[in-house]
Amino acid sequence: MDGNTTLQAQHDALLLDLDGTVWEGGRAIPHAVEAINASGCKAIYITNNASRAASRVAAMLQDIGLNAAEADVLTSAQAALGLAEDVLEPGDPVLVLGAQPFKDLVRDAGYQVTDSADAAPKAVLHGHNPDTGWAELSEAALAIRTGAVYLASNMDTTLPMERGLMVGNGSMIAAVTSATGVTPRSAGKPEPAMFHQAAERFGAKSPLGIGDRLDTDLAGGVAAGMPTLHVLTGVSGPLALLQAPPQQRPTYIGEDMRALAAEPATLRPGAQGGFQARMEGDELVVDGGEEASTSVQALRTALEVAWAQPTGPRNVRAVSTEAEAALAKWW
């Protein structure tokens, strides 16, 4: 294969999600490290996880074999602090619902960090912290009810970990929103700000957004007007892709990060691997295939047809032995 025809050769920067894309609970996802190191692109890590400082994230990336510096990491806590600057003055009290690195970031920016609504905070900054409980959520609710501006690092409802999907920041936020009726403004994905900030930081002219979650990583890249690669190593699988609305649809679909070394045309939705797809009423039918065909080839074939419809298919059915084998891996 001509190296200039690969996906990685078409881009000068990779804007990489972490959980479900590069690692899972800090453990490298198979093939991710090797693919990133071999890509020849600048790797910039943009994460909705606000519980770790950028320096700590960089150290963890180094531990799994990636050449990452603190400046290569952009966290949603950093992005949320940017939003806060629009409503705060130096020295203002801020209730930070998050891990210590988030609190340190806010304090270092010149604000007074508090954990009590009695301090009359002007803003509540809400980031992920596994130690957050009823008492902390209640202080946030009290502060918001008395006028504090509510800002969130991200709205992810789940967090991919080694044992599966754990409770994410968005689920904690849902409790506060239920108690106050206030939905926070979010700094993290799917908002486009992190993508733009990351590209601007290094002067990237042709960045590629990469992630595993349609409603955050991919939606953010689409909102930023960037081409995107969806990897099937995390939250959103084939069935979610079939139902994806236009604002969440990736440009490319890869089984994992090895897709960076593939030809772009093969990664786009379209018939491949000898598969055919068609609609029969509101049912998507997949046929054909070859002995060496893969489930991802069947998926790309199906996506071209599914995404041409006004709504996602009600059901998916295989009518060949090869298609049955491919579809069995979607669930």
UniProtKB/TrEMBL annotation:
Keywords: Hydrolase. The keyword Protease does not apply. Gene3D superfamilies: HAD superfamily/HAD-like. One of its GO terms (molecular function) is hydrolase activity. Signal peptide: none annotated. InterPro entries: HAD-like_sf, HAD-SF_hydro_IIA, HAD_sf. The keyword DNA-binding does not apply. SUPFAM superfamilies: HAD-like. It comes from the Bacteria. This is HAD-IIA family hydrolase. It comes from Corynebacterium godavarianum. The lineage of its organism: Bacteria, Bacillati, Actinomycetota, Actinomycetes, Mycobacteriales.
